[in-house]
Task: structure prediction
Amino acid sequence: MNIDEIKGLIPHRYPFLFVDKIVSIKNNVIEGIKNVTVNEPFFMGHFPDYPIMPGVIQVEALAQLGGILIAKRKGGIKGTPLFLGIDKFRFKKEVRPGDRLLLRAEIVRERGPIIFLNVQATVDDNIVCKGELLVGIGGNE
Result:
């Protein structure tokens, strides 16, 4: 799935779209790519002399990936995918310009409109972050 197809599924746009490509969707699991470049706007302030991708941006990329999976499973989303919770998150390694994040999200359960995801991001087969996200659909319904 390319960037045009991704933009057809979630409402995020530059400079806040953090999934570049979907490489796999199977049942309740999705994998995607975020190519991290030195041109990302957040690197101007985080940090100019030693650029590191902020953890909150890594979490946002994983949440967007989850939103794409939800949209594919439901044949589209009427409304806006929203964060409802972030649990058990750990950051294991720095993410720097030139890294290629492999993002993975798995739906582990659904309780009404709330969807529970296990997520992780890796660079070169090394886990850089992982945790649990709760996502719901709100607004514009």
